[in-house]
Amino acid sequence: MKIFSTAKEAIEKLESNQTIMVGGFGLIGAPLTLIDELTQKDVSGLTIISNNLGEKGKGLGILVNQKKVKKGIGSYFTSNRDVGDAYQRGELELELLPQGTLAESIRAGGAGIGGYYTNTGVGTELSVGKEEKEINGVKYIFEPALTANVALVRAWKADTLGNLVYYKTARNFNPMMATAADYVIAEVDEIVQPGELSPEEIITPHLFVNGIVKAAKILTKDGVKSIG
Amino acid sequence: MKIFSTAKEAIEKLESNQTIMVGGFGLIGAPLTLIDELTQKDVSGLTIISNNLGEKGKGLGILVNQKKVKKGIGSYFTSNRDVGDAYQRGELELELLPQGTLAESIRAGGAGIGGYYTNTGVGTELSVGKEEKEINGVKYIFEPALTANVALVRAWKADTLGNLVYYKTARNFNPMMATAADYVIAEVDEIVQPGELSPEEIITPHLFVNGIVKAAKILTKDGVKSIG
Amino acid sequence: MQNLIAKRAAQELKSGSVVNLGIGIPTLVANHIADGDIFFHTENGLLGVTDVNEADIDPNIVNAGKLPVGEAIGASYFNSAESFAMIRGQHVDVAILGVLQVDAKGLIANWAVPGKNIMGVGGAMDLLTGAKKIIVTMSHTSKDDTSKILKECTYPITSTRSVNLIITELAVFEVRNGELYCIEIMPNSSIEEIREKTKAPFKEDWHNNGGQAR
Amino acid sequence: MQNLIAKRAAQELKSGSVVNLGIGIPTLVANHIADGDIFFHTENGLLGVTDVNEADIDPNIVNAGKLPVGEAIGASYFNSAESFAMIRGQHVDVAILGVLQVDAKGLIANWAVPGKNIMGVGGAMDLLTGAKKIIVTMSHTSKDDTSKILKECTYPITSTRSVNLIITELAVFEVRNGELYCIEIMPNSSIEEIREKTKAPFKEDWHNNGGQAR
Q: How do A113-118 and A132-135 pair as beta strands?
């Protein structure tokens, strides 16, 4: 576990053509500092696994406009029209998954599960080409696990071992993503000493985390602000 | 959500031939009061899903000796020799699962997943008769989800809505079991008012819980003691 | 009109229920709950959603529509996998959703429009599969005055499961064994208007609501 | 003897490692760790296992062997599904296990004896599948003096995966591409004794440990 002093250092190991999970539900719980740093890094051909690909010209949306993203895997690309446009122009591949399937597949990836059967999506356009199986009289479709080279997550507090706790609904996809990538970096508001987080309260035990860095961009009522 | 004043009331709805999940890893985190009450109830043909079937003449072990248990599904029956003996006599069916598979299958049951692929157990005696599938070059076996009619769980504190928190390693199988049964009763040390448990700390949100009751039997350094 | 629909939907919610509210009209349902014993779930990870005053807004506490909400007493937070495990594992009693179309069997379309750049499904399919009861709240017709209740959906369906109840500003329909039953005429509506603006066959059954209809 | 084996196993643990200790000799390994930077995981739901004094025993904090343990600073608790997700998802660096038998390919048997009433597997198969490195600690022979290192296991195997290292009171074997390499002779042992008491073919390779052997 490494404590990075800048986001730039934190994402030094990221490379072109990697698969990167990015936490957040819209801007809420998104690692805004790390995303911003990624827009400044010379990489391309990325596969991004994230609920959405930012908003128009914001967050992951910048990466899309920079054509650094080869493929997006998520549940809701609607909120950024640029994503749909890039897709129509054939510049961007998209894989649309029900939100619960996205969350569950990431969890499966982190838990060493190869794939699982869900009844969400059965008989819809999103099940086309997916293996069907009947279990106890119910129809299910197969969904493979998702894993990544890197996960960029947003937490509230970390201790110096790398244990993480999250803040309110900013928790969302972050805890699963922290389990499902080879290299996990968490952007946090506060770094505390081991023992300051209650052992019963820790959501992401440190064995999942490779690096932490303090957030330099935070979400406020009035939008994203730079701090420190 | 109902607050029961006695364990007897709490298990009133339990019937013969039901499938019952029982929390705990040995005596740790086991709902000792509810189990004790179950030994006094006139039921038979039960399927018990629990990591182990108690110890010789203790806890679920009494149920086994009373011949109330038709089948046990768990990972470690070794610690109660009576279980092996009843099995050899043909009085008890057993389904042995790796501990991780047991835990994961219960979670799957609570999450609406039909089943999943794990590589644990592949090529061993415990995979005999199980469907095999290769995913990305790795061999997996199919494991179906586990669900139950009733779950008896042990928590530390409940609020009057039914939100639960657990104590240390007494957490073990309890949170998953609380999600995977139609009727969930939690035995707790303490019942507090809503708002007294931190929203970030609640492990089992109240929507999973049907009833709570205060523990009358607790595990101490010197063994199980009756209180109150 | 929206509040009329939301108010009617609120009447369906039994004390102690766990209810997931979709975006749009469904969000308004919470304003019409008299009793505090209804628990609102939002799929981004909160059980115990309440209103929030402008002054108390926390940008990190939002609902599925990414709008700021408050935290009720006894609320709890959880991650997205756990949240959808609740939905998909049938632990949510009622989901109230908006739709683009609903058909004669009670199947709905609410996530995609052919030829349009809408590429989001969010939690719609999960809710359709997992919630014990599905209530649709919607305007009876779309902006161009065409019926949203059709013989068959022309947009991609959200699930092969029928919804349970459909509430519009004109009528309330129940889906029974894959057939629509008009069970209520809403205030200022008439059976003639309902017949005119509903492009799916439906039966009429008023026996449960006295003289309210016809 | 047990401590000798445990001490040797402890030398394998790199700073920062997450280590799962099995029942028996593996439990002793923790006593031989000089540096505090090794994190012990127990599959019943605790990362950060430490020793506990008799006076501080809490009956609800136990390890996989149901023995009382302590909670390290920075420890965390989690449920069994999360704990095995850590193991099966390859987030545990090293598992140290006892075995009944190990064969010429490094396959082990440690959960069942044919004809005996042992009907427990616990977390053995999960650890074999998921831990990045598997170290076996065991007595070289069983009570009746027969070798526990055999050409082929006669008991049911725990996994089709070979272990990485085998430490007995007589020798240390490394498993390389499904073959045993004796890489170290333990104190008070000899290559003759190892050859005599090992019923599986093995190669000898001492190049990594200077004059220690032979």
A: unpaired
